[in-house]
Every structure is written in structure tokens, then in C-alpha cells.
Amino acid sequence: MSKKRGLSADEKKTRMLEIFHQSKDFFQLKELEKIAPKEKGITMQSVKEVIQGLVDDHLVDSEKIGTSIYFWSFPSKTKNIKKRKLHDTQNEFEDVTKRLKKVEEAITIESVGREPSEERNQLLKLLSEVTKQENELKMELQKYRDSDPEYIAQLKNEIEDLKTAANRWTENIYILKSYIKNTFQKDNETINQTFNIPPDMDYIEN
Q: How far apart are CA 155 and CA 149, in angstroms?
């Protein structure tokens, strides 16, 4: 018989929050050390660490009253934190979208009748950084997909627009590479190395 898998850190946090949210009560650490193993399968030795992690994440509040420390968390607190993070991430995503559009426009302008330059190299580098940041933000937004269905639906449409825009500047880069290849008789590998263009660069399909 295979050994039973222990709970992950995230699973412990989720189950510990359930104790607070289901009871809507206040607890001392020693009380949680008795309740958590029995009701949620969290070992007594790890209760203190889990609680501290939730306090650090601002998901559980604590207050010293007299000589005792009490912990509590209500469902609305977690919901409000998710909404605030979603709002902050949305604002950051919108900012990155604007930067991506500006970089795309700059590359389009620079690629018309211009020879390779250091400025173009910097634009390509900036474009790569912004695209990476955009992908990281998509992953961050995915964490809160259950918080605001209407916004997520809107976000999907915006991502499709971003894919279209990304494919346009990808096309511009291909045009620029073709221009350099024909004008300066440079091979594809040399062009990629000179301008730091990833050899596996391709259009976004999915």
C-alpha cells in the first residue's frame, strides 16, 4: 500500500481558513492546535507555522488581549483581498498593454526605410521585456479568475487583441529581417544574433 501523501502548504492554509470561516469565531493558538488535527488533518506541529503564514498573507488577523493572542478571519476579508489584488493586477495589465502598443508603433515606424541601429535593438529588447511582463501578469490574473467573471470575460477579449497586435509586430520583425538579408547579404542566424532575436520566434496561435 502506498504511503499517504501529506498536505501541501497551500492545502494547509486553505483548510485552516475553513476553520475560521465556518465558525466565524476567535481562537487562541492552543485551541487551533487541538481543532486543526481533528477536523482538518493538519498536524499539531505545523499549526503555528500555518497560522503565521496566513497572518503574513493578511488573510488572518491577530490581536494580543491581556496575556493571550487571538486569531480570527471572516469570509469577507479573503474576498476583499482578492478583489483588491485583482484590481491592482488589472491596472498593471492595462499599463503593460499601453506600453506594448507604443513599442509596436515605434518598431513599425523604425522598420520603414531604416538601416539597423542601436535604437532599434533597444526597442526589440524592450518589446521582449514587456511581452514577458505581460505573460507574467496573465498568470497572476489567472489566480483570481473566480473573483470577477465579467472582468475575466473582458480580459479574454483584450488578450485576443494583444495576440493580434503581437503578431503584427512579429510580422514587422520578419519584414525587417528580410530587408537586412537582401540589402546587406546577411544570413538568418547572423541577423538573429546581432539583434538578439530569439531563433524560435513565431506567430502566436493559441
A: 10
